[in-house]
Amino acid sequence: MFITVLTQVVILFILIFVGFVLAKIKMLNDQSVKSLTDLALTLVTACVIVKSFFREFNKSDLKDLLISFLLGVILHAAFILLTVLLLRDKDKNRQAVLHYAAVFSNCGFMALPLQQALLGDTGVFLGSSFVAIFNAFVWSWGLRVMSGDKKSLNPLKIITRPAILALIAGFIIFILSIPIPKIISEPIGMFAALNTPIPMIIIGYHLASSNVLKGLRDLKCLFTILLRLVIFPALAIFGMRLCGIKGDMLISQAICCAAPVAANATMFSSKFNRDTELSVNLVSLSTLLSFITMPLMITLAEKLATL
What we know:
The chain is an all-alpha fold. It is built from 15 helices and no strands.
């Protein structure tokens, strides 16, 4: 199973390399990548989530979905608590970026493609709730940390995020068993298929402008990446298993937890004048190191999932 996971990660890194090359030959620029990011975070992610709900309703799936929601809330809350306790920096701009990077994984860009490859639509079905909870925490606690302003919290903005709206729409379709005609489901499926190549190209672009060597010399940066890639995923996997979570549920949640630093850390850093260079290094270095850590964490989850 380790080889299967590693193969999927290698495939993702080949796509990342394409983005890296496109950046180096100047085929991509900041504006085009910003547009691609907006496309991926809105239309593409929404289609992936909605498509995962195109299934016949049954009580077992509903129960799994609700459990997945609860796990997403508990895991994010636990990551926030541990981050605040373990990670400090005298420079408040750096601390904001470090806290955000430790808590939030690239669960939309990196996890959903892996869940699709390893678990099929079931994996995305379960993972979509984690992405929705991720968005809720990003636009509440994450926004508060990055902006430093409590007034920046906007409940309406949280609810109207594309991923949240897509989850609501998908949930209604699933609960009511609404039949989706092919003329609608096919385009949604086509847009959903873009969820793997576009995000990977975006990550590759950011890698091309990063200073990985500087990140390797920054101990706080390395500790944050250790939390994000190893400590938090391992604690989540063992914690969930001790609570009786197993099977596809455990694997799906583990994939989300094991993903590298969220790519939008750089966007928030730039918007609120935080340490943008640090955010780029965190995203880039964690993405590179996840080539090793993600297969290990997911394989661990797969081993425990059957016990």
